Amino acid sequence: MKAPMDEVSLVHANALHILDAALRRRFLVRDLLWCATCDVPWVPILLRPMTRYYACHNKSCPHPAMPAGLVEHRVWIRFVRLHGVDNCQIPRDRRHEALTDALNRVLVCPGLLLRLEWWE
């Protein structure tokens, strides 16, 4: 049996094409993540029933895939703190729009650090 990360490395290049629009909407920071090392986007992927990850689109990227919930929490909390909003002020179905209005992109840097680039 393969470990989940092994599965990620095998499927992530095609995963974007597998997810339909309704499923992609469940990924809060879709279209915002960008690999600082490879200079390509990170894509949402789904492993097993409803195990969500983001992974670099480059198959040979040295960065491992990241659990979607962890990435989304880190980005959302920074948005909330910077903009002084309460979690309840923006409904879940409007959060992606709020993030794309505020963020140019989120760079995934070595060590899986996230660098948020805000629109000016």
Considering DSSP H and I runs of 4 or more, what fraction of the residues is helical? 25-40%
> Largest sheet at a glance?
3 strands, mixed
N-to-C terminal Cα separation, in Å?
A: 48 Å
Q: Count the helices. How many?
A: 4
Shape: globular
Report Rg. Answer: 14 Å
* Overall pLDDT level: 85
Order of helices and strands: HHEEEEHHEE
Proportion of beta-strand residues: 25-35%
The figure for the number of domains is 1
- SS content category: alpha+beta
> Which stretches of 5+ consecutive residues score pLDDT under 50?
1-11, 13-17
**Order of strands across the biggest sheet?**
1-5-6
- Total number of beta strands: 6
Oligomer: single chain
Features:
single chain, 120 residues, alpha+beta, three-stranded mixed beta sheet, three-stranded antiparallel beta sheet, 4 helices, 6 strands, 38% helix, disordered N terminus
Structure description:
With 120 residues, the protein is α+β, with helices and mostly antiparallel strands. It has one domain. The protein is built from 4 helices and 6 strands, in the order H-H-E-E-E-E-H-H-E-E. The strands form 2 sheets. A 3-stranded mixed sheet has the order 1-5-6. The termini are far apart.
Summarize the structure.
This protein has 120 residues and is α+β, with helices and mostly antiparallel strands. It has helices spanning 4-18, 21-24, 68-83, 92-102; strands at residues 33-35, 42-47, 51-56, 66-67, 103-109, 113-118.
Question: What's the layout of helices and strands?
Answer:
Blueprint: H1 4-18, H2 21-24, E1 33-35, E2 42-47, E3 51-56, E4 66-67, H3 68-83, H4 92-102, E5 103-109, E6 113-118
Parallel strand pairs: 1-5
Antiparallel strand pairs: 2-3, 3-4, 5-6
